[in-house]
Predict the 3D structure of the following.
Amino acid sequence: MCIFAPAVVGSPVATIEVRDTTLELSADHGQPPWAARRIDFQFPVQSASYDSASRLLLVTTRQATDPGPRITELEDPKSVIRKRVTAYDLGAGKLRWTIEHPGLITGVHEKRAAISTGKHGYLIDTATGRVISRVPGTLTINRHDMALGLEGDELSRYDIEDGSILWHRVVNSRGSFSMSGDTLFIMENGITAIDLATGEAWSHSIPTTRAILSPGMFQLPERFRERAEHLASDPVVDGDRVYFGADTMIVCLSRASGRLIWSRRIGREAWRDILNRGLGISEPEIPGQLILQDDQENLIVISCGYAAGPKHGWRTDPPSLAIISKEDGRTLARVSIDSLAFAFGYQRVRGGHVVAGSERIVKFDDSLRVTRSVVAGTTDRSFMAMATSGDDLLVRTSGGLVAFGSGLERLWEQPLGTGVGMNAVRDARGYLWFGGVRGVIGIAETRDSGSRSFVRLPIGRGTLEDGRLILVDRNSVTVAELPRIGQGND
């Protein structure tokens, strides 16, 4: 336990008491336990962020100063809810500083932290808690230690040492975002690439919205109809090329300049002779969206499903699976997946391809011939998300988690409850750890004996950061460093 009276930064802060406790988390199935640290901050914890290099834990806490209604205006000085940001050094086992601040932590690295209120972003010195600079909008620190701010449609980069502005650029903040190295891609009626190191950018325009068909035979003029928006894939980056899909168009662009290398339309199959495309009564979630995946010298393209016009009774076209040459965009093979109404996921597996929809998972061999199909059963109810773990598939269902082998043979299933994500970390003991709103869950399988272990750590909201479990529960934060593969079980 340590008690620390910090230097005043901003509003005065009373002495805060922090309790630091070492815990043992059971590893189950005959393995020794490993240590975790639970830090109690006295007041309810809103958010927590951890920097592994400096072993610095930053938390935001809330304290009611007197009875009264909750006030949600973040920067109202008369609010009865006071917020504090506290820095705790796990390496030294002591509190560094506490400041009174209305924001939430939006990024941390060894020397600097970012705190944002929605109106302003603050760059903080992690050694002292001193506010180095205040910028408009929100501020974050990305994994490359770049301080980035966004105010409306203006994206800016700031010097992480002194907070001075390095560059700013107008962007379309309503689009979707994707990162590859130091390049930020924004998908909105095409694709824009921004080099975050220099601020230089290029754009390539492709319509990513389409008019939705009206029910019935009579169609309103296009300008009066609702539109389906953001019909774009995430980009695939391979060396000096960027591949991107929007609506029914696939393009290959130069990563450096955005120059068009080739473009191909991946529209309706030739045997589906319909002029109108749009959203029918049998609604796919996002009509016409494409999924692009890298497959060495080729691209995998999944069309999620198109809705047909009145001529075909408002039926939704089935998704399709296509293999496209990266070199020139030629379609090497393509099949319609008639057993699915809509596809949400794709995985490349040993010996073929797997495409998932909510009601069924289908496996194809390398020649795109169907080899196996699995239907969601009474326990699964519906499939929701899919990821790989070695040669196996992990499928999140409405009832829990199911593991399939590469041939779609069912290996095991585990009820999980609600609020569990699909991002998993595997540690040296063979556990797969999943974060969720009710703690974290570890699942270990011993293939030799066919046994499987299940561990639930119900310690509040759980996240996984850089091989560590970060668990927030009321007034405390628990940090557990998972034994990494290759480090052994000590």
Observations:
- The chain is about 0% helix and 55% strand.
- The chain has a mean pLDDT of 75.
